Please model this.
Amino acid sequence: MPQHTITLTDQSLDLDVGDMTLDAASLGSAAGGYSVAKRTLQAGRSRGVDVVTLDNGRLRVSVLPTRGMGLWRAMAGGLRLGWDAPVPGPVHPSLVPIGQPDGLGWLAGFNELLCRCGLQSNGPPEFDAEGRLLHGLHGQIANLPAHRVDVTIDDDSGEVALRGVVDESRLFGNKLRLESIVSLRPGEPRWTITDRVTNISAEPGELELLYHVNFGPPLTVPGSRVLLPIAAIAPRDAVAQEDFQTWDQYGPEQPGSVESAFFIQPAAAPDGSTLAVLHNAAGELGVAVRFNVQQLPYFTIWKNRQAAVDGYVTGLEPAVNLPNPKSFEKQHGRVLELPPGEMRQFELTIEVLADAAEVAAATAAVGEIQQATPPQLHDRPNPDWSAP
Amino acid sequence: MPQHTITLTDQSLDLDVGDMTLDAASLGSAAGGYSVAKRTLQAGRSRGVDVVTLDNGRLRVSVLPTRGMGLWRAMAGGLRLGWDAPVPGPVHPSLVPIGQPDGLGWLAGFNELLCRCGLQSNGPPEFDAEGRLLHGLHGQIANLPAHRVDVTIDDDSGEVALRGVVDESRLFGNKLRLESIVSLRPGEPRWTITDRVTNISAEPGELELLYHVNFGPPLTVPGSRVLLPIAAIAPRDAVAQEDFQTWDQYGPEQPGSVESAFFIQPAAAPDGSTLAVLHNAAGELGVAVRFNVQQLPYFTIWKNRQAAVDGYVTGLEPAVNLPNPKSFEKQHGRVLELPPGEMRQFELTIEVLADAAEVAAATAAVGEIQQATPPQLHDRPNPDWSAP
Amino acid sequence: MPQHTITLTDQSLDLDVGDMTLDAASLGSAAGGYSVAKRTLQAGRSRGVDVVTLDNGRLRVSVLPTRGMGLWRAMAGGLRLGWDAPVPGPVHPSLVPIGQPDGLGWLAGFNELLCRCGLQSNGPPEFDAEGRLLHGLHGQIANLPAHRVDVTIDDDSGEVALRGVVDESRLFGNKLRLESIVSLRPGEPRWTITDRVTNISAEPGELELLYHVNFGPPLTVPGSRVLLPIAAIAPRDAVAQEDFQTWDQYGPEQPGSVESAFFIQPAAAPDGSTLAVLHNAAGELGVAVRFNVQQLPYFTIWKNRQAAVDGYVTGLEPAVNLPNPKSFEKQHGRVLELPPGEMRQFELTIEVLADAAEVAAATAAVGEIQQATPPQLHDRPNPDWSAP
Model:
């Protein structure tokens, strides 16, 4: 048999395998070089959070089914991908007050390498005419537990694919299903996230989706750079406008500084594929985030330059839309309308660049795509992109 | 000894029996034909929810002490009583944001066969003059864990009675205690819920209570009918007014349609007893909900005619009050005032009608009660019943 | 080795020792007379709450790491210190909706002997200009789980010190770390709480902190008295103004009565140390709360005279500030400003007075301090102390 599929969680059967580890030996398979470990965290604010760690001998990627299939962090040898948020984590969704009146409760659980912002909405909180919260910051999906989780292992290649299904749905509400697959192969320095979002309703649905991929030191340090092929770029607001000349650079920690964000329409190869690269000052350590602009046409670079203890971090954020209040995005046609039963697929590959040659190759790939497209640089906020 | 009482949960002693099954064999009793199984769910959004399943050989009724003694679902042979809500369940109360500013967070946990709406309030959200939530949709009781659960088994009859105690109380707030007993006897096609609500405060308390009893297919399908003896009936609003001629009928799924509700004062036998019947098109499968108008004088028929995937369902809802904003109900004298220490009892029997004869008998029982009372039919909303 | 330190919980390592008991025998130490028991509660609203009970042979003090290192209750022989709140407890933080729009959700978890109010704010809810909640009643710290808990046992003295670390922090928010140590020695009738609050941010932080120490019967009964050395005292509001002549006395239960509170600047010994004493009518049972006005310059006496079933209780509340809306406290200079990295320490000793001699000695100690300071008695609210 070429494949094993093991159910880890199935809410409808009340099945949860508990803590366990799988590898080639336990499966009696030929191909080795991988392992899958599931664990329910026990301590502090993490109690009750399931973590599934996928190891391909080169990378260890920790996925959080309990937090909407977000990625807690990844280790590439001694390199930790992720950041040090000022809240210990991961945090169980029941301790994240996403409905609190100011719409900022989401931040109480924000500390992951990758979390999705969506599905009904993302962006800053939006309020109704009476000042009541309509949409909290960055939506619900990052705080919804998966009801179904399984892992498929290919006996020949040793490819491991963890699949989770999360419903953001309720009576009289949006009804979207996220099916996320995180996959990696023995020895490769990358993993892929394949997400399918389906409107499981018989009525039209709406989708906003942004991948908040967050890196702190040692990738984000003074002298680090970010690059991607640009079709158009603009600062989000007046703060970013002042920093526009250095949008691709990272400076020293600035305690008390305000976040800076740049909105981008990435350029891409003819098939839509493109990538963003982040590397350190020396250019011998980096990461590439590969995606497709036909699926994810917008990109935000978010820089939080506060002190390390306050969460120095950058977000590389490919997305369906720009992180504005939802009504603004809808007005500008960037909210996806999903007819009943329709599905959209999104793919993201995150790759570790372990030495100068790999950084140089990724940088060259960005340059090659850029060559075909002269970038439009707006040195002030674009009124079609930035909510007033 | 004629009875066994076994404590399943006692928060004051931190006692919880964990997963277990009881039957005549394990108790060494004569009468058989029943079992009681307690299980703490492990997976997805249900993690941490206790389910106690009572089986009398004919029915299996699943009670949720963690969700205010609501009923998750019941199985009568192959017939499932309940509905397919667009949120997988049951949902742990800690994941239901009943306090979110729009007052609709309650819907994130709404997927049960029976849940109570109350105790301090039910009905749509109500806000203060500044637009701040006063009462969320349908109140708190369905999202409060019982602090005491026990089961009593009668050795002679094999009757099983599950009792749970839930306090909806806090300092400077309403202080009501719900003591709910779910009981059934071997081989019978029905179960009874006996609720006692006590004001455990030395100050006056207020009670609203509505039993949201929800049925989807195969009981609610095109051609299904609902009937009960009517003293008076009126559509809730303009939407229901349009459907008034077919208030007792169920039509096909209408994706995108708005819910329709009818407010009813049921007629009853001289002792107050009455019943509502729901049966399928063929009239050979149905359910009867028996109650007493001296305890529960109002009744709402709620029809959600959205597509099956969006939760096609009807609610048969005997109640103390009509599900309007609490201030409106208070104005109209339908909020129960409970003096200090006073208790009110409510009884509900749900009965499966397994063939045409049983459906016909129940239908006849409705007709017999109706005979004595000419129904008042209001073909438009009654201003005393419907909030503007 | 003179000391054992045992880690009970470490979220960063996902380490939790589970249920366990330690004593001199299990540690193989010389000094006996103590034990430490950790237990994760299983039932009802307490499920998932960790309790660590410290026993010195004379006192049993139960600490709640899951609830911000609050104290659930203490037993001194047959005497229970604490109160009977109208909500069964302790309550897991995930069931306490501290963000609900009216800002009163905190009360759903309020039933402890001691809970901290803070750290960013305490006092009544405060709203912004649009009526949206800014600060909920009494802040967040009492509903945040510790991420690190350990216990240190001194082999020679048998002193037990339980340490917990709780972060009230998030990206773009206040970042304060509470390190709390609860310590007691074999045979002594007292325990000490040593709290260090550190601003772990590189930006300035703000701290409000009030120790809500709550006693019901048998310490608070008609005829009970509270006393402490007074530099100045004023009723909080018109209600307390009417009771001003009897601020130090406890009367019978008054169902339906409104809470009464007195704001106090305690007098102290030259080194700042002072104490408050609560004793019963006969003067042969009491408790002393010792603190230092250099750390905790304000004190609130809170009387809730409702019926026992509604939570008859008094709060003795040494604090950094007065429990007013935060903006008022800030205006009046009572919010502590913590520069980056700075720490403040607070110490509180709670002592059982087991007989008339001990009560008399504590009373005399109050008198001795008072002698040096003529008390300022304001018989109406002080506009600098009470928010309008």
